[in-house]
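Changelog-adjacent note: as of this version, every example in the card shows the full chain rather than a window. The one below runs 73 residues end to end.
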Amino acid sequence: MSNEAFARVKLDAQLAAQGETLSTAMPCATEVVLPDGTRANYVLCDRHGRSLAVIEAKRFSVSPGDAAAQAQT
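Full-length structure tokens:
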């Protein structure tokens, strides 16, 4: 299992614990390759397929500021 797939399993479990599921909330894409070549765990889209939000999991050792830079691309 890739790191991205493992992160999605963990994110799905955390969302389920809060009573949310991405599959029913809104359309989303998984393991999306961003313009800088990195991958996002999820990209939430509107009904026309336009990106609205990025969900990206990082290790505790990674600065949130570094993760924010990835999400902005």
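Structural remarks: The radius of gyration is 12 Å.
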